[in-house]
Amino acid sequence: MPEQEAQDLFFPSDEVKAYATVKEYDKTYAQSIKDPLSFWAEQAEKLEWYQKWDKVLDDSDKPFFKWYAGGKINIIHNAIDRHLKTPIRNKIALIWEGENGESKVFSYHALNREVTAFANILKSMGVRKGDIVTIYMPQIPEQIFAMLACAKIGAAHSVVYGGFSAEALQERINDAHSRVLVTADGGYRRGKPTGLKQIVNEAVESCSTLEVVITVKRTGEVVYMENDRDYWFHDLRALPIANTPCPTEVMDANDMLFLLYTSGSTGKPKGIVHKHGGYSVYTSTTHSMVFDLKPEDRYWCAADPGWITGHSYIVYGPLINGATLFLYEGAPNHPYPDRWWRMIDKYGINILYTSPTAIRGLMRYGESWVNRHNISSLRLLGSVGEPINPEAWKWYYNVVGKGKAPIMDTWWQTETGGHVITPLPITPLKPGSATKPFFGVEVGVVDDQGNDVAPGEQGNLVIKTPWPGMACCIHQDRQRFYESYWKKYEQQGWYHAGDAAKVDNDGYFWIIGRSDDVIKVSGYRLGTAEIESAVVSHPAVTEAAAIALPHELKGNAIYVYAILRTGFTPSHELEKEIKDHVAKMMGPIAKPEQISFTEILPKTRSGKIMRRVLKARAQGLPEGDISTLEE
Ligand code: WTA
Questions:
Q1: Shortest CA distance to 244 belongs to which of 113, 148, 79?
Q2: Which residues of the chain have pLDDT under 70?
Q3: For a pocket test of ligand 1, which of 313, 525, 556, 589 has the largest count of ligand atoms closer than 8 A to its C-beta?
Q4: pLDDT tens-digit profile of 125-156?
Q5: Which of 42, 43, 48, 552 has most Cβ atoms within 10 angstroms of its Cβ?
Q6: Does the C-beta of 304 come closer than 6 Å to ligand 1?
Q7: Torsion angle, CA of 55/58/60/65, rounded to 10 degrees?
Q8: Separation of 382 CA from ligand 1 center, angstroms?
Q9: Contact criterion met (CB below 8 Å) for 420 and 437
């Protein structure tokens, strides 16, 4: 945080302050951390419970915390069922626009009808409470209906991002032991159909638990359907059973709602588990307070429902709050770079939540594309996924927000379930800082021993108190959950986030980036270990190291150092072949920017690759402490 930037303050206008629901931060925050359980009980009271909890927080099995222990709830009861008893029933829940311009609108009543039908279909395929259904879909309404339908009948969903490869999909289906998969023939991206069903066909060959694939028709391309395994959704939707009532399953507050795979610093992706109770409370509270949601708002979170941002802030938080949400299927620059601004104008969007990568991508086309449209409906902006550079922040603020819409730069993770460090609309903003912790959560920046670092100094970001949105575990791996997040500060009982950060003299948090072997590329989270094993699975490679280097658009780009097997010689063709191989193994987002062939990799004496040294060398920076480097 350069000195001058830390001084740059943007104050909320009187208009913003007058309109804001939450009027005050300091006192409320102090109160909320003095007695967090009362704060979180009060928030939970705003939801409907089938049965009230016995204990707000059961911490008898740390770090496997149980929020609202003994409570009975279903997130769908709050996201849909209870709205049907109020005028929200006839309010628009979802406006969807396809990349090809097609659009669909669903009221809460219609949402309930579609989710109920989907739930009946899943049940008729044998899905029961506690099963895990894998969802692999483009950004179409059925993706959301499928997620909600699982939750309604007490099954958990595991959404796999539609940009992932057959290998990645297969690994996730197998880890979750899914028997049912929901997919589509494809979606549209830059005018072209993306053939999802072909990828599914390839993936499921080696998924022994999988018995049923339900396919939504979106593009109408010819796809192979296997007898007794593959069913078209529209055929099932036409069956009488789809249109019968379906009760929402009564769940324990600590029953699994979903699992979502994300990259860690070692080995295979981790299935992060979230539960009905705490997650409902946390996503709805943060969504309503951070985005200052008003009943008349049209809200657009331009993430993919397949990532945590989509789960918490496209689907669950907004629906619990009875919001009108917008969903767009395709690329931001299709057919022209004004696609987003055109849709904001067309639908009168009031709140836009997106990533720094998307902002940088659109900024590069220049402001004339924005200024063609009337986007004055925008009242509030949001950013998530990676640190936002002050230049992109200012463009977003001035060109998109016209200097009147505050930017909520929200820091959080798949594991935190929702916003942890974030401004509120009344917070004075500093471009590039996520500002301060949300109510009811204590956050710190500490050294390896757990001492607070001095203002302006870099340290490890920790969360010092449990919060209701926290993941409860890694699917079927208690030990890994403890080791990944809790072991480092076991004595203090703090959550170790894996990010490096600083705090300035005003108590503002500045996130620097991952401090572990996780790389954020365009806001997507990838593990160096996964990239390396994809590189090494190419027959020409014997050893590899992946690092992240700064990239103007993507934030970070992947650079790989590879040692070839004897008999192979470095060439541009081989470089291209290995890059394509990684993209095929993991998905296009993981495609390395560059592969450098090398004879040796810097390692510690115990054989660990020193990525830090590679990174410093690549950037021409000092290599730091290399006392552990082997001879
Ligand atoms: C990074 C995304 C800076 C951070 C919701 C974190 C951020 C990782 C911000 C989690 C932000 C997220 N400023 N960095 N506002 N938001 N990050 O699990 O490194 O995909 O640890 O969740 O994204 O990524 P994940």
A1: 113
A2: 1-7, 631
A3: 525
A4: 999 999 999 999 999 999 999 999 999 999 99
A5: 43
A6: no
A7: 170
A8: 13
A9: yes
Indicate which residue's Cα is closest to atom 12 of ligand 1.
Answer: 385
pTM: 0.96
Residue 608 has what pLDDT?
84
SS3 label, residue 578? helix
Residue identifier of the C-alpha nearest atom 3 of ligand 1? 387
Find out whether the peptide bond into 570 is cis, omega within 30 degrees of 0.
no
- DSSP string across 47-97: S--SB--SEEEE-TTTTS-EEEET-EE-HHHHHTGGGGGSGGGGSEEEEEE
Q: What is the dihedral of CA 224, 225, 229, 233, to 10 degrees?
A: 130
Peptide bond connecting 335 to the previous residue in cis, omega within 30 degrees of 0: yes
d(CA 397, CA 462): 29
Distance CA 629, CA 462 (A): 29
Q: Which one, of 449, 461, 451, lies nearest residue 415 by Cα?
A: 461
Give the span between the Cα atoms of 273 and 259, in whole angstroms: 4
Judge whether 269 and 530 are in contact, CB under 8 Å.
Answer: yes
36-44 vs 26-34: helix axis angle to the nearest 10?
100
Is the distance from CB of 601 to CB of 580 less than 8 angstroms?
Answer: no
Of the candidates 312, 282, 323, 277, the one whose C-alpha atom is nearest the C-alpha of residue 50 is 277
The CA distance from 79 to 313, in Å, is: 12
Q: Which pLDDT does position 5 carry in this prediction?
A: 58
Which residues partner with 192 through β-bridges?
189
Measured CA distances, 397 to 27, 381, 411, 574 (Å): 28, 8, 18, 44
Q: Compute the distance from residue 247 Cα to the ligand 1 centre, in Å.
A: 37
